[in-house]
Write a structure and sequence with these properties.
single chain; 2 domains; four-stranded mixed sheet; Retrovirus-related Pol polyprotein from transposon TNT 1-94
């Protein structure tokens, strides 16, 4: 049952069953999303990749849930039936290794940029210093 609330938050739950398909040995992913106390989306599907461990199967499941959760928040916002969903997306999984925090970082502070794109020499040098690799130059 949905509840009236002023503090809307999309909450997801993700799980997997490592090598759960007896025919292909592929893992099964499942997720569910809740808003205002009611289920708004869910899915259970065989993973397309073959996971080599329980942890890997959990991360694949969490990735699939995260992708859907980001789309879901955007979809709800575009419906314009509410001003916004004010709180960040939360996704819970039962893997103890999966304690991951993902946050936005500006380009100026993203020290991994030299691995992925060209940049002027001075900016490159700043990034190398921030990576604490300047002694190698």
């Amino acid at each position: 049952m949905y509840r009236r609330t002023n503090n809307l938050k999309v909450v997801g739950y993700s799980d997997s069953d490592f090598a759960g398909c007896v025919d292909s040995r592929k893992s099964i992913s499942g997720y569910i999303f809740i808003l205002a106390g009611g289920v708004i989306s869910w899915r259970s599907v065989k993973q397309t990749l073959t996971a080599t461990s329980t942890m890997e199967a959990e991360f694949i499941s969490c990735f699939e849930a995260t992708s859907h959760g980001v789309w879901l928040k955007s979809f709800i916002f575009r419906l314009r039936i509410m001003d916004s969903i004010s709180r960040p997306l939360s996704i819970y999984c039962d893997n103890l290794v999966a304690k991951v925090v993902i946050e936005h970082n500006s380009t100026e502070l993203m020290i991994v940029d030299p691995f992925t794109k060209d940049m002027p020499p001075l900016k490159f040098k700043d990034h190398v210093v921030n990576m604490r690799l300047s002694s190698l130059m």
